[in-house]
Amino acid sequence: MRAKASGTMDLSSCTWMVRELGEAVSCVHLLDDNSILVGGWDGKVKCWSDEGDLIWESQTPNRVSSIIVKDNFVYTTSGLHLVCMTHGSGEIVWETALEGSADAVVATDECLLASSSVYDIEHNDFIESAVWAISFDGNVLETHRMDERPWTFQTYKHGAIAGLGRPMNGYLILDQKGGIVEQNTEWESPTICSTKGSTPLFGLANGSVYSIDGTLLKTMDAAVSNIIQQSGGLLLSDDRGYLEFYKEGVQWECKGDEIGNLCAGFDVQGNPSCWVARWKGSEGEVLVHSVIDGAVLASLDGQRVHDMTSNLHRVALGCDSGQVYVWEKKLFQRRLTQPMQQESDAARSAMLEKLRSLRK
Questions:
Q1: Among 23, 25, 103, 11, which residue's Cα sits nearest to residue 305?
Q2: Low-confidence residues of the chain: pLDDT under 50
Q3: Residues 67, 87: Cα–Cα separation, whole Å
Q4: pTM for this one?
Q5: What CA–CA distance (Å, rounded) separates 27 from 119?
Q6: Starting from the edge strand earliest in sequence, which strands make up the sheet with 140-146, in order?
Q7: Could you give the CA distance from residue 133 to residue 138 in angstroms, rounded to a whole number?
Q8: Virtual CA dihedral for 157, 163, 164, 170, nearest 10 degrees?
């Protein structure tokens, strides 16, 4: 491997591929077959195969904030719109305008469920939000308007669950047709983030971590910005740049610049990894930690990351520069265990660029 001054592997030395969106990346979606969908701040969407071949590109109305795939169709929230495209070619099938910014979309067996919000510049706050049930051909079936913004919105059982902000706080559960099943309004602070799965946990603005049944699991010193269930414990970060792995007590912790993104990564030599994107106002940094002890395995300097995602075999992230980086488990592990290389940085950079170009 090629070590940096800090002794960690340089992530740029082991990328599976680097691609260009052509504008700042706002959303990255990695599929189970390792193909990748990427959306931008100006509405461009590109699809690459697992080998890095460009399959198609399309132009949606505005910033892409969410991408899902359902039954050979791609659905994106783009500016004010929910957009449907064919998965095979990227051809736009329909667009449906929501009220305010279209924030997130999930799919059930019956319909699409989307969230939207209206931001008031004068009040510097979100003044109205809505959850929409929309048919697969783009027709609005039902709309639930509310004062609370859904800061989290994800699939839950057969429907969806939304973590809500002020004034009600708590969460909202919807069935597969978009009907409201349950609403919890007992928490005293806005819900900021949550874990996925059948038993989600919620991180609040006051630092509290709650289970869905209302059990207080932990309290942090600042607002919980990210929460992930991994290896029988919790990866937690707050809005001051603090990161910890909590499993019946704090197992390890670290402090640093603001954490913009946090995701669970593939196993490295049999141990789980987590990937952290930090930002210090002028420069970004991506760090790969071992979840076992917090050791930094690899890092990448300079890039500001807007979105990050993973599956069992790959990790992908999108940057403000428009670049999309993808790492593959086997290549990452192989480079991590290779002995130190002695060639010059210039020679090695040229070699790595040539290898990456073979996948273009």
A1: 25
A2: 1-5, 342-344, 358
A3: 11
A4: 0.90
A5: 20
A6: 101-107, 112-120, 125-134, 140-146
A7: 10
A8: 80
